[in-house]
Model the fold of this input.
Amino acid sequence: MSDTNRLLSRRNVLRATGAATVGMLAGCNGGDGDDEDELEIVHWWTAGGEQDAIEALIDGFEEEYPDVPVSNNPAPGGAGSALDTEIQSRVLNENPPSTFQIWPGKAMDTYTESDVLADIGDSVWDSEMEDAYLDGVKELAKDDDGNYVAVPLNIHRLNNLFYNVEVLESAGIDPSELSSPADLLDAMETIASDTDATPMAHQTQAPWSTIQLWENVLIGMEGVDTYLDVLDGNVSANETAVRDALQMVADYSEYFNEDAGSVAWDQANTGVIQGNAAFLHQGDWAAGQYKSAEDFEFESDWNYVPFPGTAEVYHVVTDSFVMPEPNPSPDATEQWLSYCGSVAGQEAFNPIKGSIPPRTDVPDDEFGPFLTAQREDFNNSTAQPPSIAHGTGVTPEVKSNVEGVFSTFNGDWNIGPAYNGLTDAFDV
Ligand code: GAL
Done:
């Protein structure tokens, strides 16, 4: 049974038996519910500079709405690896928080199909906000019936290759000359032989970082159309491309930090900050971590190029907040969502988070040279594909299947079983 069906049928059972009283059921781990107006915000931003970014957003909200008590209640784990389970159990028990972080797009299917996200078209999406948003992001915020159910807060780019400037210089590598994923492999071989640094900082503790690496290698080797065809489930029609990209990732794995299996993404990235690692492939939340690091400056200490072979692509990851029902604090939640959709909210959050705003009218001033360049790249990009690892491009069921495949691949780097696993993963 899929997650969606499970959620639906459990809710129906709850309704039929009348057992849906808040807090009655085992496994309920909701807030204390003492304060009816308290705004409980659940998100996973505890890593790197991400904590600073959500705190800046909450600070800005509190300035604008000083009477609303806020409970900042994170469910830590990169790319939401822990949040979804917690939220689903609370939604099942009809004890959701006021709002929670979710990728707008297919990742919302589980909730929209169960009809547990409020339509916020009238209460939050006024015409001022609607006019200011980028069209593509605006569409992601709607359910299948075209009703607004989410407020996108940011736009991250996934296809970045960050690097420590000094390490690359000492190995004589010019990153602007890396034009394909194979060039990157050659550069890592040079770094391994000419320096003491780890060629690529990476985490394999949770599957998402290797999934996104494979996504970018696939785009870099074969182009966006092939990638999108695979997302549509046509894995065997692209067998050679899928296998070659898996092989490239397996070849890269020779150059990961030895503790990749036991660290989180921001712990791996510390190697780049300390000059112990050369490259990091990661979304631009990594730049948020560089920003919060001491004495680690853009261009002189760290820099980036688009992942080799993907220069014209902006591989998009967006985060949003939603209003689950029954909502413990409807007025405060609407105020929070309106703030997330405002110029002030997006200006407070994005420069620290390492993302660009989905509103077109947020001034550049606070964004600094790196994010201003990302904004330009976004505007000039020829494609903005969604992601598997970050839940926007495939259903929750497919995503979970792909994660299963990469959990194993992360340990054995065995192409055959991974390829077969992927053909099954999309066959739902
Ligand atoms: C992504 C999310 C980002 C960042 C990243 C690492 O899925 O969209 O905002 O948090 O995970 O956890």
